[in-house]
Amino acid sequence: MSEQFSLHASNKVLADVVSIEALTAGVRRVRLKPQEPVHYLPGQYLQIFLSDSDKRPFSIASAPGDEFIELQIGGNVTDAYASQALTHLQDNAAVLIQVGLGEAYLRPDSNRPVLLLAGGTGFSYVCSIAKALAQQPDGRAVKLYWGLRNESALYYQQELAELQEMRPGLELVTVLQEPEQDWTGRTGLVHEALLADIPSLAGYDIYIAGPFPMVKAVRDAFLAAGAERGHMYADAFAWI
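Now predict its structure.
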């Protein structure tokens, strides 16, 4: 590791790059193993340091206590933000990360039903929360809505089936914007599919992740449907 990095913060740690594998043509699963114990909450994110002045945030898809920290990084060669981070991960046996960031983590002391909504690789954020809920069943209803452009962008089907086995009350709804003719699932915009199922959102804890314009549209639509701002969580809210 280059001497340009400094480990002066308690939540900064070197992490071994264990594996990088394709989940789809445009999404890579990265597994990291911190060289020291780290603490994070379900729904928090980490930063990968490309240098002291260049750090890239990514949602954590694993649950606290898992052997590896999992990231699901989307992008292609035209997306410098993601591709440069992937190149850094591929070129280094260990990378500097900062873990346990963000305020949109799972609220463990709530007994309200949970709605998880994600667009694209925003799924990694709600995945961490769903895994944590599956490991600690508490009786709350949990519905996960995942919006994707088309079926080729779909991944993690076996893992989602395993989560449902762990927590039978977990309901999964996949929504495609551009479905193929043989698609028998939901279509359209993911937040509109959720609102068609649940017209009134009062009383729910709602966790949201996706591109900023999508999160803004979801926030506004959900507030109009009775969601309580204090019980909606998304790190994007700090910027929109």
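Residues 103 and 238 are 10 Å apart (CA to CA).
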